[in-house]
Structure formats: C-alpha cells, structure tokens
Amino acid sequence: MNSSSSSLVRNELDPDRLPKHVAIIMDGNGRWARKRLMNRINGHEKGVETVRTIVRTARQLNIAALTLYAFSTENWQRPKAEVAGLMLLLTRFLDTERPTLFDNQIRLNTIGQTERLPNGVRQKLESTIAETAGHTGMVLTLALSYGARAEIVDMVRKIATSARQGSLDPEAISAETIADHLYTRGLPDPDLLIRTSGEQRISNFLLWQIAYAELYFTPTLWPDFSKDEFIRILQDYQRRERRFGAVPSASTGP
Ligand code: IPE
Ligand code: IPE
Ligand code: MG
C-alpha cells in the first residue's frame, strides 16, 4: 500500500468518492491578526503556512484539482501597503513552494486578470507555470486578480468577437462553448467549495462553475484551518447525496 492510500484508510475517506476538484475561499487572515493585535500582513503570512499544508494534504489524498481564491479583483481597493505585502508574499510563496511542486508533480495554473499583477510577480508565475506544465499529480490553480463577473464579461467578449468574425454560429453556442471561454477552461467544475471565516457568501468566485458544487462554510479563520479540519470536511462531503436535479436514489423504483 502506498503512503497516499494508507492515509486514506487512516482518515476513513472513500478514495472512490473524493471530490475531483476542491475550491477554497481562504478568508479571515485580517481578523486572525486583529485578534492578536498584529498587522493584517502577519495574518496573511500565517495564511501562507495554511496554504502549504492544504496543498500537501490535497496532493496526498490524490485530489486532482485544488483552486485557491488568493486575491480578488475587488481586493485591489485595499490599502496600497496591504496589496504590496500580498504581492511580496506571493513571490516568496512561489520560491519556497517550487521544490514541493516538483517533488509532488503539481502543475501550477492561474485564473484571473494576471496582467494586472506587478511585472516581477507575473514573470515568476509565468515561469513556474511553464516549468510545471508537464506535471500530472494535481493542478493547483491560484485565483489572482480574479472576479467571476470580469471572467464572464471576458467570455462574452470573446464569443461575440468570434460570432462577428463568422467563426462561430450564435445558434451553436452551448454551455460547453461558455465553459471553454472561461479562465477555467479544461478544469472540471468544483465538486466542493469551502469558505473559511464564517462569512456565508461567494464574493464573486467561480459563479458559473459552482452551479452544482457542494458548499461548506466553516467559522475557522484561514490561518487556523488545518489538515484535520480539511479531512473532516471531506468526510462530510462523502456523507452528502449529490442529486443534480434527479430524484433521490432511494426513492426510485415502482
Ligand atoms: C483573506 O483574508 C485573504 C485575502 C482576501 C487576500 P482577509 O484579508 O479578507 O481577512 P479578513 O476577512 O479581513 O479577516
Ligand atoms: C474573498 O474574500 C476574496 C479572497 C479570499 C481572496 P474577501 O475578504 O475579499 O471578501 P468579502 O469582502 O468578505 O466579501
Ligand atoms: Mg476577508
């Protein structure tokens, strides 16, 4: 038995019923810091440690795709110093996580208007994405300068342009056409969406893609989120019955 399947047994998770794609709204870094009379950036620093733990755990469990909401289009409105601090942490994260991405066959991916990120960050992202492109263990998607409405606007523009140029027949536009023009093209829709910090809202994350995701809201602040809690949430997910609009499986029959 390899180490990942033995950890599945220990965690009482059914390996055949794990979500293929987990998306997380990592929230609560600022409140974590405030409770300790610290600077918000200290909360983000601690949050990066949680990111490391959860990336490793997801990989160990053989989850195929993990998407983390790291910075929203709306987060550009935060004080300059906080935005700069977050960009610095992102650059550092890319440096320190490099060996993990290689050792664990993790492919890095981003969604969002990454052209708005500072040059240095963007270059590091692009080179890491290129260098890890052949990794097949798990795809780690960072949502950076991401907003679902901006993504939808971009999608409509691309489709409208193709229609105007005559390369796309408007009558042929399907849900698949739309999915293919979103930043998440090629990724399966999230099966499970987790939000930390007690807020019960989506905050402009993956609006199209979460149509049938199971939602889980936890009061835990992101810096306090742990491997154990992640596994408990996965156990909860496995107890749910996903119906996709069909009748419950127990009530079929005569
Ligand atoms: C989440 O933590 C991280 C980002 C949005 C970048 P917050 O910074 O939103 O923390 P709270 O919500 O203020 O506690
Ligand atoms: C959502 O958190 C964005 C990220 C986690 C990156 P926010 O803290 O920005 O969301 P609101 O303001 O509480 O809706
Ligand atoms: Mg927040």
Compile the SSE list and pairings.
Blueprint: H1 3-10, E1 21-25, H2 29-35, H3 40-60, E2 65-72, H4 80-103, E3 106-111, H5 119-131, E4 138-146, H6 148-165, H7 175-180, E5 192-195, E6 214-217, H8 227-239
Helix pairs in contact: 2-3, 3-4, 4-5
Bound molecules: 3-methylbut-3-enyl trihydrogen diphosphate (IPE) (2 copies) and magnesium ion.
Describe this entry's structure for a reader:
- By secondary structure, this protein is of the alpha/beta class.
- The chain has a single domain (17-147, 189-237), classed as 3-Layer(aba) Sandwich (Undecaprenyl pyrophosphate synthetase).
- Helix content is 43%, strand content 14%.
- The chain contains 8 helices and 6 strands.
- A 6-stranded parallel sheet has the order 3-4-2-1-5-6, with helices on both faces.
- Strand 3 (106-111), helix 5 and strand 4 form a beta-alpha-beta unit.
- Helix 2 crosses helix 3 (40-60) and helix 3 packs parallel to helix 4 (80-103).
- It binds 3-methylbut-3-enyl trihydrogen diphosphate (2 copies) and magnesium ion (MG).
- One 3-methylbut-3-enyl trihydrogen diphosphate (IPE) is lined by residues 25-27, 69-72, 74-75, 199, 201, 203.
CATH topology: the name is Undecaprenyl pyrophosphate synthetase
- Compute the average pLDDT: 95
Structural class based on helices, strands and sheet pairing: alpha/beta
Which molecules other than protein and nucleic acid are bound?
3-methylbut-3-enyl trihydrogen diphosphate, magnesium ion
Shape: globular
Rg (C-alpha, Å): 19 Å
Written as H for each helix and E for each strand, in order along the chain, the element string is: HEHHEHEHEHHEEH
Low-confidence stretches: none
Q: Architecture in CATH? A: 3-Layer(aba) Sandwich
Q: Please count the helical segments.
A: 8
Which percent bin holds the helix content? 40-55%
Oligomeric state of the chains in view: single chain
- Total beta-strand segments: 6
Write down the domain tally.
1
Largest sheet: 6 strands, parallel
Order of strands, widest sheet: 3-4-2-1-5-6
Termini separation: 43 Å
